[in-house]
Amino acid sequence: MTFTTSMKPSGIKTWAEEDRPREKMLQKGAFSLSDSELLAILLGSGNQDETAVDLARRILKDAGDNLQELSKHTIKSLSKYKGVGLAKAVTVMAALELGKRRISGNVSKRRQVSCSKDVYDLICPHLLDQPYEHVWAIFLDRKNSFLHKELIGTGGIVGAACDMNRLLRAALETYATGIILCHNHPSGGVVPSKEDIAMTRKITEAAALLDIRVLDHLIVGGDRYYSFADEGKLKEH
Predict the structure, then answer these.
(1) CB atoms within 10 A of CB 61
(2) Are 11 and 54 in contact (CB under 8 A)?
(3) What is the spatial distance between Cα 217 and Cα 182, in angstroms, rounded to a whole number?
(4) What is the C-alpha to C-alpha distance for residues 86 and 77, in angstroms, rounded to an integer?
(5) What 8-state DSSP symbol labels residue 63?
């Protein structure tokens, strides 16, 4: 009679201590860990078929080994993976959100906004992972110092509407003299559409009545962006 036994993966506890993510981080520092090892620490454990590292590798592979794509997950979609319950999904999404806020916070502390790259660094954490178009406004004072940023419109995959009343009210409440518009293209393209151009013109004209200038309009598509100011397009509006 022949007996068969199911082969389960060796748990992380059976690995050499220096190869375990937590121990490796303690001994060598966080910089020595791969993305999958860092994700495995957040997950804490895997499932009956995979170690935490194996599960992390699979999740990252499904995201094209791209952390920006991973950030597009929702708690619901991430918890569909076997071994990832709501608690683990919340932990992962919270860590990703902290990373985005760190980038944004560093730019905010600099206060001064002097070029389109400053604007991109300030707003990209809010736009990179969105499956739909979002419109944000950055409010500046006369010295182009950062005052405030606010979501002023959301939409679908191919367009978003800007809440003009909310935009101008926020500008007045923060005593802003300059506005920078920002929105994303989920497709990844950054060429402005007719609607983008029309929205820029409409907001520029409305803001001018309150002696507020629209200084730029950034269209973000992944790690690229289009600046109306850099391209000399604001003068046309």
Answers:
(1) 10
(2) no
(3) 5
(4) 10
(5) T
Q: How are beta strands 213-221 and 178-184 bridged, if at all?
A: parallel
Which of 194, 195, 203 has the alpha carbon at shortest distance from 170? 203
Asked if pLDDT for residue 13 goes beyond 90, the answer is: no
Instruction: Tell me the mean pLDDT in the region 179-186.
Output: 94
In DSSP terms, 217 is beta-bridged to: 181
Amino acid residing at 182: C
Tracing tokens 């994700």 back to the chain, one arrives at: 39
3-state secondary structure of 132: coil
- The mean-pLDDT minimum among 70-74, 120-124, 175-179, 221-225 falls in 70-74
Do residues 217 and 182 lie in contact, with contact meaning Cβ atoms separated by under 8 Å? yes
pTM of the predicted protein model: 0.59
CA separation for the pair 50, 27 (Å, rounded): 25
